[in-house]
Specification:
Blueprint lengths: L2 E5 L5 E5 L4 H10 L6 E5 L5 H12 L3 E5 L2 E5 L7 E2 L1 H6 L7 H8 L1 E5 L12 H9 L3 E5 L2 E5 L7 E3 L5 H11 L5 E5 L5 H12 L3 E3 L5 E5 L8 E3 L4 H13 L3 E5 L7 H9 L3 E5 L2 E5 L9 E2 L11 H8 L5 E5 L9 H7 L3 E5 L2 E5 L4 E2 L2 E3 L3 H13 E2 L1 E5 L2 H6 L3 H7 L3 E5 L1
Parallel strand pairs: 2-15, 3-14, 6-7, 10-11, 18-19, 22-24, 23-25
Antiparallel strand pairs: 1-25, 1-26, 3-5, 4-5, 7-9, 8-9, 11-13, 12-13, 15-17, 16-17, 19-21, 20-21
Helix pairs in contact: 1-2, 1-7, 4-6, 5-6, 6-7, 8-12, 10-12
Bound molecules: uridine-diphosphate-N-acetylglucosamine (UD1).
Uridine-diphosphate-N-acetylglucosamine (UD1) binds next to helix 1, helix 5 and helix 6.
Amino acid sequence: MDRIFIRGGNRLCGTVHISGAKNAALPILFSSLLAAGASRYRRVPRLRDIDSTLGLLATLGVAVERRGAEVGLDASGLNRWEAPYDLVRKMRASVLVLGPLLARMGRARVSLPGGCAIGARPIDLHLKGMEALGAEIRLEHGYVTARAGRLRGAEFTFDRVTVTGTENVLMAAVLAEGRTVLRNAAREPEVAALAEVLNRMGARIDGAGSSEITVEGVAELHPVEAEIIPDRIETGTFLAAAAVTGGRVEIRDCEPRHLGAVLDKLRRAGAEITVGERAITVSGPERLKSVDIQTQPYPGFPTDMQAQFMALMSVAEGVSVISETIFENRFIHVSELSRMGADIVISGDTATVRGVRRLSGAPVMASDLRASACLVLAGLVAENTTEIHRVYHLDRGYEALEAKFAALGAEIRRVG
Ligand code: UD1
């Protein structure tokens, strides 16, 4: 299995280009199920989760064509409605077929995702939303079976904010009869990006990006050409890397407006940040200062940046309190950081991080996607060499990670 070796101590300098957002690409690629005909998507990142998505679409009868960052999909031949356990197990976001299949075919069978490394992550709110639109849901043999005639518009309030839940119900509602109002909807930029693509396919969605989304159902949608928005978490990860190494990096092809909370925390921690049109320049100080973090749904501080920030705080001056309010059990990276010399104490959903002057390189194990990114950042500032195992987690969500870091001056290499 691949491992990544990082020799710490280099300041990162130079320019890095951001890829398309994984979490925007996934729902948008699944939305191709809603229309017959050939759609094209540009700036699709080359990632394992994208491979899994295209694999699942192909098993449903979608014609898939891929050339670099461009993907062509044609769901004219859609003839199956099942997302099997093997695929959902690899990627939870496979549940995003539920809404589109139900809307277009009147039926769907999707394996329940089960537990994952960062907590229970149920899909009950996805299912309640589908039921509100008139679907009949049954759970049997570890699968969700959903059936409906034409879905009917409805008013539905999410009990808590769910990103893929909002996307799933939105994709079901676009072909429903009549008006749907979704309240307490997720406001993440990826939801707004999906809605924009759906509208260009002929949907009538209003308010996406706010907590109330209104959908006037239409009878059918048509294919589309679309470009995936920049990855705000990849952007945040490079910002963090530049800041913690005391380097100076220009981040291009990003969307600074999607990073308000992250930029604010980095500035408070002592980084110098200049925001341009689709670009951010960041310079790190000799040593960062501690800041407190509480993860929140967008526009709050993203849970997907929590682990990376903890790596920064573990070498910052002072004490930082980090609260994780979105996922239970999303502190698995703490034990690995501790093995590298970090001083972190966990109590419930809060981690107290006392900054140390130096981390020391060690063999460590990646446990999920963002935890792996945290270990890369820790490795960049640690003495000697850090050896990261299970890097397949990184390949799920970071395109060309080593190449991008190496181009900024990091000593990083992958060994197969
Ligand atoms: C998405 C992102 C993920 C990010 C997360 C939170 C994708 C593909 N993934 O995941 O990177 O970390 O948003 O920003 O976009 N919940 C329920 N019932 C449900 C659904 C969710 O209780 O039916 C809970 C979850 O357990 C969690 C919280 O709601 O505690 C938020 O989860 P959610 O926003 O749904 O995360 P994902 O959409 O899975």
